Amino acid sequence: MKDKFPQSKQLKKLIESHGWSLYDTTLSRGRKTAFSWKELQEAGVAEEFVTWHNYIFAPLPQKGENLEQAYSHTNGLGPCMQLNNIEEHINMDGERVHIVDGKITYIFSRLGVEPYRSRDTIGLYTPLDAKPDMPALLIPFEYVLEKFQKYFRIITPEEYYGGLQHPNIRAKIN
Predict the structure, then answer these.
(1) Mean of the per-residue pLDDT values for the chain?
(2) Which of 15, 35, 10 is nearest to 111 (CA)?
(3) pTM given for the model
(4) I need a surface site. Which of 23, 68, 122, 138 has the fewest CB within 10 A?
(5) Spatial distance between the Cα atoms of 12 and 17, rounded to a whole number of angstroms
C-alpha cells in the first residue's frame, strides 16, 4: 500500500485545467463535524492525495467569489467520467451507471484514495445520503491519469437533466 497517490501533481493539474480542484475533507481524530466551506477555502486546495483521505471536488472560485459561492452555481453537479461505449470501461470498476446523451456517465463529487482488493485505487463517488442513485467508480492507481485524460469532464445540470427543471443537489461537505 502506498501512502499517497504518486501522480498527485499531474492529477491536480489535469482537474484544475477544467476549472475545478479538490479540497481535503478528512476529519481529524476527535472532530465530529464536517468542515465549513470557509474552513476548506482557508486550508486551500489539496496538493497531493493521501491514502485513506477523502476530497471534495469544487470549482475554482472566480475573482471576488468565495468557495461556497463557486460551488453553489453547480447545483451539486460537475465532475464526471463519460465513456462512449462499454469497451472503454476496461480497468475500471463501477456501479449505478447513468446514461447521459447516449454515453456511459459516472457523476461524482468526491475522490477517495483507497487500498481496495489488495490494489491501491482512486474511488470516485457521491455520498449516498446526498444522492442515493449516484454512480461510484474505482480506478487502480496505474490507470488513473489515462482515464482522467480520456474521460474526465465537467457536466452541467442542463446536460444531466436534459434542460428539465432539476432539484438542487446540495451535498454535505463530508
Answers:
(1) 86
(2) 15
(3) 0.86
(4) 68
(5) 9
Write the DSSP assignment of 39-70 as a string of letters: HHHHH-S-SS-BTT-EEEEEEPPPTT--HHHH
Residue-wise DSSP of 89-144? GTT-EEES-EEETTEEEEE-SEEEEEEETTEEEEEEE--TTT-TT--EEEEEHHHH
Nearest of 26, 68, 79, 21 to residue 47 by alpha carbon: 21
Beta bridge partners of 79: 154
What is the tens place of the pLDDT at every residue in 112-129? 998 776 789 999 998 866
CB 111 within 8 A of CB 124: yes
Q: Domain ranges in the chain?
A: 8-161
